[in-house]
Amino acid sequence: MREAMLATSAQLARLIQRMHAMQHQARVAATGIVTEASKADWRLSELSPPSLLLHGLPDRNISTALGTIIGIQARLLSAAVSNGEIDPLWVCRVLQALGDEFAVKYSPLVLKMAEITGADLPAEPQRLHSGLGLREFIHPGEWRLPPPYKVTGKGA
User: DSSP 3-state assignment of 7?
Assistant: First the structure.
């Protein structure tokens, strides 16, 4: 699973490079009018060729999408280089955030990772996160398997 996470992170790095380069290009219209890069407002739908990693991600400007992608990559790398086990459902949850987190179907990337990791995905993607988005900051160890539930106290 770690190898798949690192390979996905490498793919994300290449995608980030493409998006960064596009973000700093001037837009040239068919009429010859040039819009400087800072005002070009490049969109994900204009990536050529399109990236399968972003399957289902709503069309938005490159700047906004870059923040999402870098956050996903940081999570994958943090978990991949950590010690201990990684929850395969956590990995799938993080990858689902590359697309539409509220989609009714899993993205092809999530399905492939579930196959690699042996994760038993819930019927609907929303059940991975119960409507909560990824936190802004990475919480160290968020990728660990949940501890077994133990009943304590009276009647245990």
Answer: helix
